């Protein structure tokens, strides 16, 4: 039996309206009742995952929040932070410079707000994902004098490629740089990705990767899907995710997570394994 279930949020657990449907919720409750540990694994900041975790009653039923692509990991019952990795401070000026050179916008986060100098359509997309207020500041470089787990550079993909190359050329030894969407360039500390985060979670839970099932749809989910014993792609996934998955479920608007959980966790065959 799969003893842990890692779920991406946007495009996977939530539908196009950023909702967890009642069917998916009840299906996950059934899995939890069988002892399956649910892990919410997202590029979102912690503040953007607490409400979905509450909807799944994880503060009572148990489970793990894996925020910032695994940069921050929290046990839902105890509230203990199991992992926290932050961007090296010496890299922050170059992250800002790369975004400026590409005519894109760098953003980061406080505990409860998105921080940016400018608001555009891509910043608003992040606002919708995270469901948080936006704080505009005069100077990111002056404002961000605290440890932060992630920067996000937002803009058209063809422009983000410029920022991506600049940062990889200069800081590939200190930063992990990848796309979660074509318009979102994630900038995380080296070693932070969903597979390394899940490795830490599995160690904490005393499980092997073979006992883990993972569902995702985006490019930043690929390390997680490669790590899991069973990888499930949503029907709405990008082609690279569809090509690597062990199983393709229904779309996020058709309760694809519920379909996969029913097939691989709630079947009678798996009940007593």
Features:
273 residues, alpha/beta, six-stranded mixed sheet, 23% strand, 14 strands, 12 helices
Give a description of the structure.
The chain is of the alpha/beta class. 36% of the residues lie in helices and 23% in strands. The chain contains twelve helices and 14 strands. The chain has helices at 22-33, 50-55, 58-61, 92-101, 121-130, 140-143, 157-171, 194-205, 222-227, 239-244, 256-264, 268-271, and strands spanning 4-7, 37-41, 64-67, 72-75, 81-84, 105-109, 113-116, 133-136, 151-154, 175-181, 184-189, 212-216, 230-233, 247-248. The protein has an eight-stranded mixed sheet. The radius of gyration is 18 Å and the shape is globular. The termini are close together. The mean pLDDT is 96.
N-to-C CA distance: 5 Å
Percent helix range: 25-40%
Gyration radius, in Å: 18 Å
The general outline is: globular
Tell me the major beta sheet.
8 strands, mixed
How are strands sequenced across the largest beta sheet?
5-4-3-2-1-12-13-14
Total number of strands: 14
Q: What is the string of helix and strand elements?
A: EHEHHEEEHEEHEHEHEEHEHEHEHH
**Percent strand:** 15-25%
SSE-based structural type: alpha/beta
Mean pLDDT: 96
**Tally of helical runs:** 12
Poorly predicted segments = none
Short structural description:
The protein has 273 residues and is an alpha/beta fold. It contains 12 helices and 14 strands.
Could you outline the blueprint of secondary structure elements for this entry?
Elements: E1 4-7, H1 22-33, E2 37-41, H2 50-55, H3 58-61, E3 64-67, E4 72-75, E5 81-84, H4 92-101, E6 105-109, E7 113-116, H5 121-130, E8 133-136, H6 140-143, E9 151-154, H7 157-171, E10 175-181, E11 184-189, H8 194-205, E12 212-216, H9 222-227, E13 230-233, H10 239-244, E14 247-248, H11 256-264, H12 268-271
Parallel strand pairs: 1-2, 1-12, 2-3, 7-8, 12-13, 13-14
Antiparallel strand pairs: 3-4, 4-5, 6-7, 6-9, 9-11, 10-11
């Amino acid at each position: 039996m799969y003893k842990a279930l890692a779920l991406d949020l946007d495009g996977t657990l939530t539908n196009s309206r950023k909702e967890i449907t009642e069917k998916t919720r009840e299906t996950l409750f059934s899995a939890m009742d069988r002892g399956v540990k649910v892990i919410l694994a997202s590029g979102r900041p912690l503040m953007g995952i607490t409400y979905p975790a509450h909807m799944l009653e994880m503060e009572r039923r148990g489970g793990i929040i894996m925020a910032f692509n695994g940069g921050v990991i929290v046990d839902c019952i105890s509230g203990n932070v199991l992992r926290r990795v932050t961007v090296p401070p010496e890299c922050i000026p170059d992250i800002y410079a790369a975004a400026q050179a590409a005519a894109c916008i760098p953003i980061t986060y406080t505990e409860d707000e998105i921080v940016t100098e400018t608001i555009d359509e891509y910043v608003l997309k992040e606002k919708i994902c995270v469901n948080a207020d936006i704080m505009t500041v005069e100077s990111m470089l002056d404002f961000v004098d605290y440890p932060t787990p992630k920067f996000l550079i937002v803009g058209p993909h063809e422009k983000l490629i410029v920022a991506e190359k600049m940062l990889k050329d200069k800081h590939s030894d200190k930063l992990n740089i990848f796309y979660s969407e074509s318009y979102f360039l994630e900038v995380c500390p080296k070693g932070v990705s969903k597979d390394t985060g899940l490795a830490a979670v599995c160690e904490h839970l005393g499980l092997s990767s073979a006992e883990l099932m993972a569902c995702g749809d985006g490019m930043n989910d690929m390390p997680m899907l490669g790590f899991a014993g069973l990888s499930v792609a949503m029907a709405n996934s990008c082609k690279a995710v569809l090509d690597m998955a062990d199983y393709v479920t229904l779309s996020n608007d058709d309760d694809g997570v519920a379909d996969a959980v029913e097939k691989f966790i709630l079947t009678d065959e798996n009940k007593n394994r």
